[in-house]
Amino acid sequence: MASVLAALGALCFGLALITGRLGLRHLDARSGALVSIPSAAMLLSMASPFALRTDGFDGRAVWIFMAVGLFFPALVTLLTFRSNELLGPTLTSAVSGTAPLFAIGIAGLVLGERLPPGAALCAVGVVVGIALLCLERGGGSAMRPGWRLLWPLAGALVRGLAQAGAKAGLLVWANPFAAILIGYLVSSATVLGTDRLRPPASRRFTRAGLAWFALTGLINGTAVLSMYMALARAPVWQVAPIVAAYPLVTVVLGALILKDEKPSRFRVAGASIVVASIVYLVGAPPGRL
Asked: Could you give the C-alpha distances from 226 to 6, 33, 181, 260, 273, in angstroms and in order?
């Protein structure tokens, strides 16, 4: 079940990059985050009377979820939208796919999770496959993103830290809905508060932009909830590589919807490595990992 939930998270994260890219045609990255995160927080708040359970409540977990919410999804959303704006969805998702390496490393150091050698190889395979997915771009012409790679790389680091942090909170209070509700409320307060530092004239909302980023927020919220539900059932090393496969979704949907991503032998090879790594991670008996 954890693998299915993690795969659903990957699907939604990949789709959100496409809808976010469409939204960036109408709004800047900061305005997009100002719409997407509160939209998800509002929907979660409306669902809380029906979905939130207080069984096993532990105040320590609330503090952990709040701490995670200060930078996830707020900071990750800003970094991802800005990277999407500068580099496009495919390259953004490729570099962001290094998140499991950060997540697994932090979980090992902080939570003491033992990483099976086979799982480590699977995580590396996912990262290598994702890199191949975006090795060629624009008909084979090399792209030199330079310092712009710092945007998705920082997002990957924060996402990995958030996964380990969320797992720490879920070990204290295994309530994924509470984790995402608290995190999104804190993140909404963060983006709304920091946006007040901007001159009002810099905000230029359009109807299309509002719609695309509201949809992106709902899809991202579904992705995070699926990831938290998976983390409540399985260790970080099992969940993180599966969630990190979302660039595969982005590449496919980018080719179908955005019409600016061309298939290549590198992408076929990358997709094959990602799929093979995840199939092995999910299907291999624990003793063989």
From this structure: 6, 20, 13, 29, 24
